[in-house]
Amino acid sequence: MSVIDSRTTRGTPDPHGPARRSAATSSVALIASAIGTAATTYLFWVVVARRDGADAVGAAAAQIATITFLGSAASLNLTDVLARFLPHAGEHTGRLIGRSYLAAGCAAALVAVAFLATPWGSAASAGVGVVGFVGLVVLSAIFLIQDGGLIGLGKAAWVPIENVTMGVARLALLPVCALLVATSGYAVLAWGIAMGAAVVALNAIVLGRLAPRARGRPRLPEPRSLRRFVAVESVNTAVTTAVATFLPAVVTFSMGPRLGGYFYVPWMLIAIGTLLLSNVLITAVRESVADPAAAPSVLRGQLRLEAALVATGTAGCVLLPQVPLALLGSDFAQEADGLLRWLGLALPGTAVLLLFWALCLIRQRPWPLLLVNVAVAVCTLGAVVAWGEALGLAGVGVVYCAVQTAAALAVLPVTARWLKPMLHPHPPEKPGGEAS
């Protein structure tokens, strides 16, 4: 990737100021989105836990985790594709978004039907039925993609509005759905209705107003190259989400709903932290692609923000693990504080892996990332499936922390080698071979 020195002399306007400000604005918006999502999701599970206990949390969380995993796997990683390529889509913006939704929706329906044939299918569809389960997986796939569309369109500031509004709607729907469904399925129903409303409302604006306004000649890769990139990235997403979203369901199915309930809330908190870190980096990807000359300045700012978030998150999880768990009940604080500590200690390793992911995305190099993700998924899920009951909740945290740290150390040399020339590019040469 071609970049130039972003430094300016005193009194000279900074040519990369707009890119840095855009990155900063997008980062703040996405951080606000993650925090708002965390707050409303946390309160959602507090209500369920206080009303029905850890067993209900575990059962409902396993269903939601399964739906989210299948939707994410079926999304074909088009979230990152839209964030990466929409800035160059021009007049094909609406077509790219529409085809992405269609592809993800069809894939989601297929994987949902296939999952219903597994031994876990009946538990995953309990309370919502077969049609409802398939519909929720399709909605989940489209919901996950649409944030990438907003980022690619330069509308990241809309993401927190969407996610916080949906979170508030979920909370408001809980008592209504509890009157309609006697089991823990009322939580799944509230979650699904709010998500469906968000998909319909947002895409009425995106496809009806924002996409038609895009102008200019498309500057996308050749169709064959783009299809190959999407194919590899879709496998990447399926492998990554096997850990990120399906692990709570695996814990519940192997250890029982009670321990699954204790596991889910700490895992959700770490997932929100991971979302914060990935949002900061996807903003750097978008701005670096849209304005390659500004990449050094943008990346330095985003990395400083990333480091601050990692330090804060790790310290909070290690030093004060019982604070976020106490509201759910004293049993949550007693059973899950050790788990949250270990998950917090994994955040530095996770941050390195996410940086590696962002650099692979910028460089359009999905294969190295796929190899790393496969190794992480196999080691993490394999250990939990094989030794889940013997490990206990804290043991699952130890396994996760060890795998994340080992994978981060493995990719660190490559990450540093790729990052160095992007942060400190060689200045362009003047005519005659003299450096500027």
UniProtKB/TrEMBL annotation:
Residues 1-22 are annotated as: Disordered. It is a multi-pass membrane protein. It is found in: Cell membrane. Keywords: Cell membrane, Membrane, Transmembrane, Transmembrane helix. The chain crosses the membrane at residues 28-48, 60-79, 100-117, 123-145, 157-182, 188-208, 229-251, 263-285, 305-327, 339-362, 369-387, 393-414. It comes from the Bacteria. This is Polysaccharide biosynthesis protein.
